[in-house]
Amino acid sequence: MVTVPDVTLNNGVEVPILGFGVYQIEPADTERCVTDALEVGYRHIDTAAAYCNEEEVGRAIRSAGIAREDLFVTTKIWPQDAGDAAAGAALDASLRRLGLDYVDLYLIHQPYGDYYGSWRSMQRSLEAGKTRAIGVSNFHPDRLVDLIDHNEVVPAVNQIETHPFYQRAEYQDQMTELGVQIESWGPFAEGRGGLFTHPVLAAIAEEHHRSVAQVVLRWLLQRGVVVIPKSVHRERMAENLDVFSFSLTDHDMERIAELDTGKSAFFDHRDPGMTHFLGTHRFD
Description:
Elements: E1 6-8, E2 14-16, E3 20-21, H1 27-40, E4 44-46, H2 54-64, E5 72-77, H3 84-98, E6 105-108, H4 115-128, E7 134-137, H5 141-149, E8 157-161, H6 169-178, E9 181-185, H7 199-208, H8 212-222, E10 226-227, H9 234-241, H10 250-257, H11 272-280
Parallel strand pairs: 3-4, 4-5, 5-6, 6-7, 7-8, 8-9, 9-10
Antiparallel strand pairs: 1-2
Helix pairs in contact: 1-2, 1-9, 2-3, 3-4, 7-8
């Protein structure tokens, strides 16, 4: 069994630096995938209300026979449930779907709607023990700083798009100064930009007798980035977990740093059209 190192958050809670994400895994496949992930050694599972697969994640957790204290479970609140009045009920609904008494990390999924009201509610949920830590996702620096300046609890985590083509290094430095842990979603950019065949990444992978995916994950880990890769294939889950027995050199890290475009591979959260779509989109 691979031992995954922990990262300590700003409130003392420890999170495995490498976890398993379930975004875009169909509900019909989620229980099997999470079961496989737990069997190969993952102990950090990331889901969200908007993924519509919390129930399946919960079933896999219950059937795994792993002590609750040995698992780290993250879920997120969507803008449709934002606000002081609604956020508490949204967390309770997520807990019911997951079949858990608490989650380890509860995130604001998108920086839209009354997320200040949500944060006030989440601070109370933290005090009540319904979550061990609270944080945000997709927050740009200005919104993160403003949230910190006007609330009591500093977010433990900011989960943002982070991969070789959009590295967020300067923002990571800013978050470190603020006490916020960076967490990567989309570590492989979903293969965009030819990531899996990129000549620089492929050359480094060949030098280390590893896959490009393993090189990318190792690069993130050596930067201190928490990361939650997704796969529906058990063998790739195991491969993604097998990244603690090698290290990239300083030269490798420098070569990868040169791949940064400074632009999202997906969309701009500050684009008005995308803001409208994400802020008003509802899921059943």
